[in-house]
Write a structure and sequence with these properties.
The complex is a heterodimer of chains A (about 400) and B (about 160). With about 400 residues, chain A is α/β, with parallel strands linked by helices. Chain A has 2 domains: about 5-115 and about 205-225, Thiolase/Chalcone synthase (Peroxisomal Thiolase, Chain A, domain 1, 3-Layer(aba) Sandwich); about 135-205 and about 235-385, Thiolase/Chalcone synthase (Peroxisomal Thiolase, Chain A, domain 1). Chain A contains 14 helices and 11 strands. Chain A has a 9-stranded mixed β-sheet. In chain A, strands 5-6 form a two-stranded antiparallel sheet. Chain A is globular. With about 160 residues, chain B is mostly beta strands. Chain B has 1 helix and 8 strands. Chain B has a 5-stranded antiparallel β-sheet, with no helix packed on it. In chain B, strands 2-1-3 form a 3-stranded antiparallel β-sheet, covered by helices on one side. In chain B, β1 and β2 form a beta hairpin. Chain B is extended and about 70 Å long. Chain B starts with about 25 loop residues before the first helix and ends with a strand. The chains are: A alpha/beta (about 400), B mainly beta (about 160). The interface of A and B includes residues 137, 152, 197 and 198 of A. The complex binds zinc ion. Zinc ion binds near residues 49, 51, 63, 66 and 68 of chain B.
């Protein structure tokens, strides 16, 4: 990558199961103020463009993108909104900087999930209106069917999925921002009520409220402003076939394709050797296993056994979701991918507190847009350009 | 971050809103042909891409792999095989379903894609990947030209 882009500032507010004391605008404002202080930029003077991510039905407001500029410092400035996960927003910001027309670009994502009173209806409304929606089934069925097929083809077990939950919720105990830290046993997970077989309640991430703002800059600006730039060495995004009828139900093809795109840009030939830690989507416990295999970080069918053996624990050979993931932090709707990026940045800077990993220089963040989508993105970040230069 | 944080939860205010959303969804020429065959003749039609060697069900007008137009209509099913199955215990409002609902991905004989539909008339213990099933159509006078013209799938008899 000849003109690298770096993350020079991060800010967040939350993450909590409910936030009745603030409006969504105040939640975002708080994250933005922190991000600009962290980056050392004035949004009214130094930021060239703003990218936000949101879904109108999650916000309860039509044309919600008109409601975002003011609380991020973007009034009367270039702003646009993507209806996708925050990692898609990050990709858009990277592209803007790569045009050479923008030096500093900001990405914002948030969740006010506690304000959504009929979320399963909203998700069901995302299903095909002619073929799928008339069946009027809770959309958890879509994740459950995928879990069923993934486990059948990969050999993953419920115990292995349970081990994902115990790991991530335990990791969250060392993340002060996480909403759902807990010390559970795999038996507790397996004993929680099955809501859509094979998925039990504790294998499904609960939502949290929060906002995340990330400041990106071109190489020259990043070197000038930041003592610890996190370089975006590669970024990619992809979709599988969208329809329930023709998509792949066993593998996360969107993550395979997004990873291939990001690895190519980063010049990564062997991700197992070069990715030291990963933050991956774990909206449902099986998703972490399926995504690790799609990213090429575990061979097909190996993510489950490796998780049971502790390889993905913070002291394992491939720490995964040290932040706690969505299971431990709380699912942040469109901001979930930015939460994965946030943890990678904090780890690369050495700012991850009591959960800091030793001597890490390259990490991966991956997102999935949730049921019923087949849409995902991958970013590879390093605290040194060109891999390790110690 | 507020300069004067709220300390009394009872003082917190919220406003409520809702909006009725009603839409019309045109099924198009391929949908017309697919649903008419179900309604009039209890037949399930797909379209075939010879280039990709794939049969799409429901039939559609174009191949998502090679982007060719599809004109080769073919009948599939009504029997097929379960590719995935789940027992759903919650309704759309999150309330407990009693009894629970079985949902399955069914690959009809002759098709390369699956249908997402209800499964009935089978013990939960027998509802497994590989089970042979068949479409249970509603009676002719009850069929309206919708995916619900198949009331459910049941074990092939
Ligand atoms: Zn084709």
């Amino acid at each position: 990558m000849t003109h690298p882009v770096a993350i020079i500032g991060v800010g967040w507010s939350g993450f909590r199961p409910v936030t009745p004391d603030v409006s969504y605008k105040e939640l975002i404002y708080e994250a933005a103020v922190r991000a600009y202080a962290d980056a050392g930029v004035d949004p009214r003077r130094d930021v060239d463009s703003f990218v936000t991510v949101s879904e109108d039905f999650h916000e309860g407001t039509s044309i919600f993108d008109e409601y975002v500029p003011d609380q991020i410092g973007g009034a009367q400035r270039p702003v646009h909104t993507i209806t996708g996960d925050g990692l898609h927003g990050l990709a858009a910001a990277v592209m803007q900087i790569l045009t050479g027309r923008f030096r500093v670009v900001v990405v914002e994502g948030h969740s006010k999930a506690s304000n959504i009173l009929t979320l399963p209806h909203i998700t069901a409304y995302a299903l095909d209106p002619i073929l799928n929606r008339p069946l009027q089934v809770n959309p958890l069925a879509v994740a459950a069917l995928e879990a069923c097929r993934y486990m059948h083809e990969s050999g993953a077990t419920r115990e292995q999925c349970g081990a994902v939950v115990t790991k991530n919720r335990r990791n969250a105990l060392r993340n002060p921002a996480a909403a759902y830290g807990a010390d559970l046993r795999t038996e507790d997970v397996l004993a929680s009520e099955v809501v859509a077989s094979p998925l039990a309640r504790l294998e499904i991430s609960d939502h949290a409220d929060g906002a995340i703002v990330i400041v990106l800059a071109d190489a020259e600006t990043a070197r000038r402003l930041s003592p610890h730039p996190a370089w975006i060495r590669g970024i990619g995004w992809a979709n599988d076939s969208p329809s329930l009828e023709s998509r792949c139900w066993a593998r996360a093809v969107y993550a395979e394709r997004a990873a291939a795109m990001a690895y190519k840009m980063a010049g990564i030939g062997n991700p197992v050797e070069e990715i030291q830690f990963a933050e991956v989507d774990d909206t449902y416990a099986y998703k972490e296993l399926q995504h690790l295999e799609a990213l090429g970080l575990c061979a097909q069918g190996r993510a489950g056994p490796l998780t049971r053996e502790g390889a993905t624990a913070p002291d394992g050979c491939l720490p995964v979701n040290v932040s706690g993931g969505s299971l431990g932090v709380g699912h942040l709707l469109e901001a979930s991918g930015l939460a994965r990026v946030l943890e990678v940045v904090l780890q690369l800077r050495g700012h991850a507190g009591s959960r800091q990993l030793g001597d890490v220089y390259t990490g991966l963040a991956q997102s999935w847009r949730g049921v019923p989508t087949t849409s995902g993105a991958v970013a590879v970040l390093s605290n040194q350009l060109g891999g390790r230069e110690s | 971050m507020p300069l004067d944080p709220t300390l009394h939860a009872d003082d917190l205010r919220a406003w409520y809103g809702s909006m009725p959303v009603t839409s019309r969804y045109t099924v198009g020429p391929a949908g017309e042909r697919f649903f008419r065959a179900m309604k009039d003749a209890a037949r399930i039609l797909g379209t075939r891409c010879g280039r990709c060697n794939l049969t799409y069900v429901p039939g559609r007008l174009f191949c998502e792999r090679c982007f060719d137009e599809l004109t080769d209509w073919t009948e599939v099913g009504p029997s097929g095989t379960i590719e995935a199955v789940t027992v759903v215990h919650l309704d759309l409002d999150g309330a407990l379903l009693e009894p629970p609902v079985l949902m399955a991905l069914v690959r009809l004989d002759g098709a390369d894609t699956v249908l997402y539909h209800r499964l009935s008339g089978v013990d939960v213990a027998d509802a497994k990947i590989g089970l042979r099933v068949e479409a249970a159509f509603r009676r002719l006078e009850d069929r309206t030209g919708s995916i619900l013209d198949i009331s459910h799938f049941r074990p092939a008899g």
